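Purpose: get a first structural picture of the assembly so the mutagenesis plan has something to point at.
Setup: two entries, given in the order below. No constraints added.
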Amino acid sequence: MIAWTIYISLAGAAGLLFVPAAKPCLARRTALLVALAGLVFAIVGVTMIPAGQLTDIVNAPWVPQLGIRFHLAADGISLVLVLLTGIAAVAGVLFSWNIEERANEFFALYFALIGGVYGVFLSFDLFLLFVFYELAIIPKYFLIVIWGSTRREYGAMKLALYSFGGSALVLIGLIAAYVVAGAKTFDLVELARHPFSPGFQTGAFLLVFVGFAVLAGLWPFHTWAPTGHVAAPTGASMLLAGVVMKLGAYGALRVAMTLFPAGLRAWRTEIAFLAVIGIVYGALAALAQRDFKFVIGYSSVSHMGFVLLGLATLRQIGLSGAVLQMFSHGVIAGLLFAVVGRMIYDRVHLRDLERLRPFQLNKALPFAAATFLLAGAASMGLPGFSGFIAELQVLLGAWQSFPTLTILAGAGIVVGAAYTLRALDKAFYAPDTAGPAERPALPPISLPERLGALTLLTATLAVGLFPNILLNLIQPALASPLMRPVWEGGAM
Amino acid sequence: MNPDWAWMRLLVPEGIVVVTALAALTCDLIITRRRLAWNRGQAAGLLSCLGCVAAIWWLAWRPGPGNPAMLALTPLTQFLKCLLLVLVGFTAIISMRAKFTRHVGEYFALLLLATVGMMLLISSNNLLMIFLALELLSLPLYILTAFNKSSIASAEGALKYFLFGSVAAAFTLFGISLVYGLTGEIDLDSIATHLRAQPAKPAFYAALIMILAGLSFKLAAAPFHFWAPDAYEGAPAPVAAFIASASKVAALFVLAKVLLIGFINQAGSAASGAYAPGWAPLLATLAVVSIGLGNLAALVQNNFKRLLAYSAIAHAGYGLLALLANPEQGLPALLFYIGAYGCAVLGAFAVVTVLEESGSRARLVDLAGLSRRSPLLAFCLLVFVLSLAGIPPLPGFFGKFYVFTATAGGLRPLGGLWLVVVAIIGSVVSLYYYLQALKQVYAAPPLPDCGQLAWSWSARLAISALCAIVIALGCAPNLLLSKICAAIQTSTL
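Result (structure tokens, whole complex):
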């Protein structure tokens, strides 16, 4: 059932190509319908599939000569991310409601991307996973280069080459693993059983982990993220920060760490170190930006650092925090980009924090201000929002393994509060120097924007208040026979 | 049945193509001469296409494996001929509306004669026969490259192609004569037997290098690629399509044959840590240089045909990698790869043909706004180019993946991984220029004086069919791969 998330998205992408370009309204409605259908399938899947064990959905031979199978399956971790994708897809469509030019092509590419993302989260054959992973790269490029803004050609190409470069590393590692295992299979579960030698694991893990982590914004390979996010149109930056960066983190967890647990143990300190640099550097860089969208772009790097730190802790609580943080950041980053890109930029065509001052946005767009206030609070990790419980778990896990680094990461949270408050203050609550008469009139916040914001806010609040909704999916999955070797016995 | 006739029967497919060539020539001279050029083109093109279909039908339904003198007809060679004829058939369809020449009959006759050369090349089992077939293939190609008589670039490209080609042919012939002098054999199997019995002399390696150089020229593998960019740019687009697809398929296969049958004991090894002299290190060098040079030079091209030419050089390099693998894995990988590559590059040049027929040139900026001038054509180009770039789920990706897996595992566990690393880096670089072209198609606004693109039903049919084939092969590689594997299992190479 949950595999229909992939099929309906890809079918939607193909179908949208046939919607006449002159009817953007039809394209939008179709897109919303497809996204909602995907979300419904995702929710039904979450309720039907047991979280604690790997449940096969489809497992058929695809290219028997190489042992490639069309193997879709799901466990709790996949379910959480599929759910996130469903939510982000719906919200992204709602915030792309104002796309008029070539709307059919926009949404076709959008759903090709979404289909690829669903596919990655559900694939348990490495070849298939890789196919879906690369399938997601090309639509990103076109979404940015056609509908993007600031330096879009640069940002799009940089993003495409970084992603493709990362996937090249992954490909080298996967081919090496396939050849060494000699079992003529790309099945993740079967390959995970193969006892790779520790020396091989150390090398292959580095390739595959770094390859995936490029897309997760691992410092120093993060530079595509801010430029790409800034250049992308709102819907695409929501997806980029919301789900595409999660592809990288998911791949690192699901492929690199599951196949090569000994490699993870060899490199965990270095990874944790880079992750913490990412947290602190991202936060400090966000503090120094003038462009509102760059603030959010760097904050994404910072928050994804928590995911990577959680992965390196080798403790169940840290990993659980990492997965929860993937969900949480996906929702919150989407919301922040929606406010900056859609609610503000599309109305005032400015993103410079200093120049936003005369608009008195808290009065002109109170809904945007309130949304940003809540999203900012969630992003800072205030209790009651999803970010709090996720980052808390990561820090608890990390404290047991890397106390010094954990303190630095904690400092990153403080800087995180600082840049969020700075942006909030400068963009929305700057003192009123001009009279109300000089304030340009702005179009009011539309219904799709309100619905989109409410969807995302509901998600972050629901998970913040009742984290067990997701923890009941994540924890059993981490305790399953497939994932247990990843963290068990990893304590120092 | 009398034995001479049985012998002839095996050459019926080649015969059909020869007869079609002559028929196209005669028909054009006698019957349709007075008509308009494009009417004549349609007639001759349809005739050529029918000839190809008839030959395919014969190959597919009347398989007659056997070994007439100097030729080996196995299910594998028959299969490859079918693939070639499909590519030629599509080339004929996209040439129908050609405006670059009035000599329609001669054009199609030469195209088909070159095809006969390829078919013989694929099945020949004998160095002398290989040389003759190569010449039969090359001479029509030189003329076809120069076929646009109103264009200086066409003449220049053809002259370069011819000069380099004749030197390469001389090298090949010299190499063959050395091999003959050393072994007293020209038959590939006998050469292998002879070489197995006694160690190779230094002169043999000189011969090997010469033959390899001659065949690499046909493949346009660096450093024997100098003719390719000019010839591809100058030649009429359908001819460039033919050179890039069908002729490359034939050349790669014959190279595989010469090396894997005749010189199998002189392979040596290019595996890291297990170097041994032989053709494998040479081939590895050719592959690495082709991949590096092709991809880097393509980055700075502003003409789409030149870009495809350099990308074709890189693709020759990827193909050579497959020869370094264990033949059990490498051969199916190679065949799938060149099949996928042939379809995609033919499609890309077919799109260029449509553009040239509409009066524009083939610079990258001429692709601007194609998605608005003709959404279908733009989508097909997207599919072809992404397949060349190796983006899943298109067959270019699976082909590369298969080749890489075979190469990485073939030499000795992970011995070929360094080659795979080079090739994958090359692939990443290539994405840049492919995306530059696609950016023009989808993101740039059309040039001011360009309206909707009008294109003929024949081009529409051919390009859509190629696009459908490419997508189908990508989603279900097994369609082609199972046939390749079956053909390989039932035949010795």
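The mean pLDDT of chain B is 86.
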